[in-house]
Design brief:
Layout lengths: L3 H5 L2 H5 L1 E2 L7 E2 L18 H15 L9
Antiparallel strand pairs: 1-2
Enzyme class: transferase
Protein name: Sulfotransferase
Keywords: Transferase
Length: 69
């Protein structure tokens, strides 16, 4: 019931809007995107990717988890 396919194909998520009563209504469909490994490079600059890596390293510091580089 909560699979990506089920949720992204619900009518409300195809055509509904988040905060429709405001001037900044956002289509619900923007919340569903089938990501693919490495696809970030089609949407972010290398500098943006490096900045996200730095932020994640700061957040993970002390947890024992490391980002693959």
């Amino acid at each position: 019931m909560c699979s990506f396919e089920k949720l992204s194909n619900l009518e409300v998520n195809k055509n509904g809007k988040h905060r429709p009563d405001t001037s900044i209504a956002i289509q619900n469909s923007v919340y569903f995107r089938r990501g693919e490994i490495g696809d970030w490079a089609n949407h972010l600059t290398p500098e943006m990717g490096a900045r996200l890596d730095d932020i994640m390293e700061q957040k993970l510091k002390g947890s024992g988890l490391k980002l693959p580089r």
